[in-house]
Amino acid sequence: MTTATKPEFKREILDTDKNEQVTAILQSNLTNLIDLALLMKQAHWNVVGTGFRSIHLQLDEIIDTVRDASDEVAERMSTLGIAPDGRSSTVASNSELSSYPENFVKVSKTVSLVADALKTTIDSLRSAIEKAGDLDPISEDMLIAISGPLEKHLWMLQAREA
User: Fold this and answer.
1) C-alpha closest to that of 62 among 22, 1, 138, 122
2) Is the Cα dihedral 138, 23, 129, 68 positive or negative?
3) How far apart are CA 42 and CA 103, in angstroms?
4) Which of 44, 130, 131, 147 is least enclosed by beta carbons within 10 angstroms?
5) Model pLDDT for residues 30-61, shown as the tens digit of each residue
6) 111, 34 in Cβ contact below 8 A?
7) Interacting residues of 54 by C-beta distance below 8 A, sequence separation 6+
């Protein structure tokens, strides 16, 4: 993590080793969450076909959840004394999400692509939860709280494919 330096705050919440591990975990998930919000907005603007309006509106609901989650993760990193990196170059080079098509995409394909991106993000969060538990239960709890609503959104998207 390029931004991981010793915190400048006088009072550290975690010891340096744990802090570096936790903030690296958080940075990885921040990158995915930012990319997910951008991907969903791309999908929102370019979805076409039968059922357009309902998926268009559903994507906005998911975007709101994802943006709130990315803000929570970034603010947790700041709380731990490490500057979060949400720059476009960082997101573009470090996101685990697949690239989204640049043109109009039919509703059924949009649902599938967005569900895949959401699943990748959830998998990353679940991995982070496992790793963060022994290092920082507060960050672990935050990641758990973020995962629940995203999993619910995934369920609702997948219900469209059934």
Assistant:
1) 122
2) positive
3) 9
4) 130
5) 999 999 999 999 999 999 999 999 999 999 99
6) no
7) none
d(CA 140, CA 16): 18
What is the rounded average pLDDT of the residues 137-158?
Answer: 98
N residues, the chain: 162
Strand locations in 77-162 (E): 105-106
Which amino acid, residue 99?
S
CA 118-80-129 angle, 5° bins: 35
Q: CB neighbours of 83 closer than 8 A, spacing ≥ 6? A: 3, 77
CA-CA distance, 9 to 1, in Å (whole number)?
Answer: 19
Residues in CB range of 30: below 8 A, 6 or more apart: 70, 73, 74, 77, 84, 85, 86
Single pTM value for the model: 0.93
The band of 2, judged by pLDDT with boundaries at 50, 70 and 90, is very low
Greatest alpha-carbon span in the chain: 57
Chain centroid offset of residue 47 CA:
21
| Contact by Cβ (8 Å): 72, 34 | no
Classify each residue of 135-147 as buried b or exposed e, where b means 16 or more C-beta atoms within 10 Å of its C-beta: bbeebbebbeebb
